[in-house]
Amino acid sequence: MKEQTPSYERYQRQILLKGFGLEGQHKLLQSKVLVVGAGGLGCPALQYLAAAGLGTIGIVDEDIVSITNLHRQILFTVDDIGLPKASTAKERLAKLNPEITIIDYNERLSTRNALAIIKDYDIVIDATDNFSSRYLINDACVLLNKPIVYGAVSQFEGQVAILNCHLASSVTPANYRDLFPTPPIDGEVLNCAEAGVLGVLPGIIGSMQASETIKLITGIGKPLINTVLTYHSLTNQLYKIEIVANSSTRSLLPANEADFIKMDYDWFCASKNNKFEIDIENFNKIANTADVEIIDVRELGETPILTDINYYQIPLSQFKENIAAIKKEKIVVFCQSGKRSLQAAQILFDTFGNKKIIYSLKGGITEWFKNKSTEKR
Question: Which residues pair with 315 in a beta bridge?
């Protein structure tokens, strides 16, 4: 009995809650949750689940900590720059709560390992920031009948939902493909690298993901099953949208493990116009040469501003009506991360065909600046 005393003291404020009690705490301690992504969403979700006493937490992330992470990924400090996120997060969480089990996977979730990793967990928290990972997680969880606590953020707005959950037995569980049957086209939905994000917003949404996970495990409250909750931080507006399972989307799912392993999610979500991409090395070679037109397709006011490359700006939202202003035969378009510039490149090709040589800077200005700072070291 003495061994239980520290746990009781640690979780006392939760155990005192009406409807939660020792039974709820026991359910948490017996549960296993996999968090895919130890970034802006994953950090707060991991911290609160560890503090709440969730028995086993898995962390999947192949990335390393960079300085651009620190304004929102609050598990990390400047001393962690260059270190793997998953193992660094594990080390921090173990200091927060040494009574739980934390497993780190310093690798990317793929068709080769997803089913083997996910099968050992009760719930999967999707804290990723790209569509290929979201579709992969969704399809693996549908095959394994695992619920997903989904989260997403961009600029000032975030979303939370519980997908593929069979707890509401009278309702057919909806999955991510019922929300997005096919990936959005380039430029339609911008990620954080492209559009930016208010640092506190992933903290709010990630905390909501942790809250929904605790509700699912303990049976308290009304979880967001088949429901997308959207939060706008500038106005504090909240609204919900019910998701209905669609029989027509079932055919989009891999039928079995063999079909899942054959899926190429990067290709499925990749731009169909990436034939225009030019890498940074070749871009630097042709930049500021007389026969090249360099165009920034970001919206007015977006930063950073380039000072050592000659270019002019045509925002993507005004691109078609201003395309006549482009005179040179060789054109390079760029944006923040290379997404919108690919869309602009396709517009150029649809207009000029093979009459002009068209490029889009791969990785955008974000990668260009990163490469530049590396060269200076």
Answer: none
Is the bond leading into 304 cis (omega within 30 degrees of zero)? yes
This prediction has a pTM of: 0.75
Q: CA 83 to CA 61: how far, in whole Å?
A: 12
338 within 8 A of 363, measured Cβ to Cβ: yes
The 3-state DSSP class for residue 190 equals coil
What percent of the chain has pLDDT above 90?
Answer: 60
Closest by CA position to 126, among listed 96, 101, 149, 155: 149
Q: Which two structure tokens, joined as six digits, stand for 88?
A: 């660094």
| 149: pLDDT strictly greater than 50 | yes
Residue 138: pLDDT band with limits 50, 70, 90: very high
Report the first-to-last Cα separation within the chain, whole angstroms.
Answer: 57
Model pLDDT, residue 170:
67
Confidence of residue 5 (pLDDT cuts 50, 70, 90): very low
Is residue 118 within 8 A of residue 144, CB to CB? The reply is: yes
CA distances from 14 to 51, 137, 224, 250, 266 (A): 11, 31, 21, 40, 42
- Can you give the pLDDT at residue 3? 42
Q: Round the average pLDDT of the chain to a whole number and report it.
A: 89
Region of 145 please: left (phi>0), alpha (psi -120 to 50) or beta: left
Helices (H) and strands (E) in the chain, counts: 15, 13
Q: Which CATH class is domain 31-269?
A: alpha beta
Domain limits, the chain: 31-269, 274-376
Alpha helices in the chain (DSSP H): 5-10, 12-15, 21-29, 42-52, 85-96, 114-118, 131-144, 176-179, 192-195, 200-218, 257-262, 265-269, 280-286, 339-352, 364-376
Q: Which CATH class is domain 274-376?
A: alpha beta
Strand pairing class (227-232; 157-163): antiparallel
Long-range contacts of 305-310 (CB under 8 A, 24+ apart): 306/365
